[in-house]
Amino acid sequence: MRNHITTSRLASLAAPFAVAFALTAPLVANAGDYMNEHFWSAQPEGTAWVTNYGECWQSLHGANDLEPCVVAPAVPKEFTVRLNFEFDKYRLENIVNDSELQRLDDYIAQVQDTPVREQISLTGHTDAKGSEEYNYQLGKRRAETVQEYMISKGIPSDDIISVESRGKLDMLPDYDVFSVQQRRVKINAEYGG
Questions:
Q1: Residue 13: phi, psi to the nearest 5?
Q2: HSE value, Cβ hemisphere, 13 Å, CA-based, for 174
Q3: What is the C-alpha to C-alpha distance for residues 62 and 40, in angstroms, rounded to an integer?
Q4: Over pLDDT 90: what percentage of the chain?
Q5: Half-sphere exposure in the Cβ direction for 20 (13 Å, CA)
Q6: Which residues make Cβ contacts (< 8 Å) with residue 77, sequence separation at least 6?
Q7: Is 0.85 topped by the overall pTM?
Q8: Do 183 and 127 form a contact (C-beta atoms < 8 A)?
């Protein structure tokens, strides 16, 4: 008799679990199909779409007619424009290597093609001729020239967060301190939202 009571109690305790399982079994059986057809997984290549966060996604078992993901190359965090300015000059018409403007144009196009917004800092440099104070001002004018040029090519002015000068303080070690190679503008990019 005691065995019968224990079995009956166990049966009465298990009954709600059996009902719950019976009700959820169809949901569990369809979960695989639901997940395969309605969820997406990250994929680096193939037919995919790009989220607002710049992530590339592809359906596991979905449509095949989506636009392919194209991952834009990241803008370098540091880029030096070797616009070798004539002595004591800071305008673009006073550079001795016009081909360097093409490098700057390529950089600007790369900034415009990336999905993220860069915060750009410009730093002007000079050679060692002249006083520290004078060279500081000259380096700043060179950086401002690059700023004006970038804005004229479509970079939003709000994206250029600082324009400064190091004057003759940060010399390139591979060149003479009086070399035209020292006259340059360094661009730094931080990635914003």
A1: -75, -35
A2: 1
A3: 9
A4: 40
A5: 5
A6: 188, 189, 190
A7: no
A8: yes
- On whether the CB atoms of residues 45 and 60 are closer than 8 A, the answer is no
Instruction: Please report which helix (H) or strand (E) contains residue 165, including its range.
Output: strand 160-167
Per residue in 63-85, pLDDT tens?
555 555 555 556 777 888 888 88
Q: Which residue has the tokens 């695989």?
A: 32
The owner of tokens 């990019």 is 189
**Coil, helix or strand at residue 186:** strand
Assess whether pLDDT exceeds 60 at residue 132: yes
Residue 174 and residue 153: Cα distance in Å, rounded? Answer: 32
User: N- to C-terminal Cα distance for the chain?
Assistant: 74
Q: pLDDT per residue over 25-57, tens digit each?
A: 555 444 444 444 444 455 444 445 555 555 666
* pLDDT of the residue at 52: 56
49-50 vs 160-167, strand pairing mode: unpaired
Token representation of residue 144: 């401002």
Q: Pinpoint the alpha helices (H) of the chain.
A: 2-38, 99-113, 132-152
* Per-residue model confidence as pLDDT tens digits over 139-167: 999 999 999 999 999 999 999 999 999 99
Tokens found for residue 59 = 């359906």
